[in-house]
Design the sequence.
């Protein structure tokens, strides 16, 4: 994965967070360039 790809994904996730997923925790770590998403919340959300 390239940093650009991760950047676009992080931007999409941030938009989703602002618009429809207020309970989704997204942490953008500038040091590693990675995006950590609360996968547990996503799994629980899709089970409903």
Sequence:
């Amino acid at each position: 994965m390239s940093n650009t790809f991760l950047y676009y994904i992080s931007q999409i996730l941030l938009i989703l967070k602002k618009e429809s997923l207020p309970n989704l925790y997204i942490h953008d770590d500038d040091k590693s360039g990675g995006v950590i998403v609360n996968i547990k919340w996503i799994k629980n959300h899709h089970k409903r």
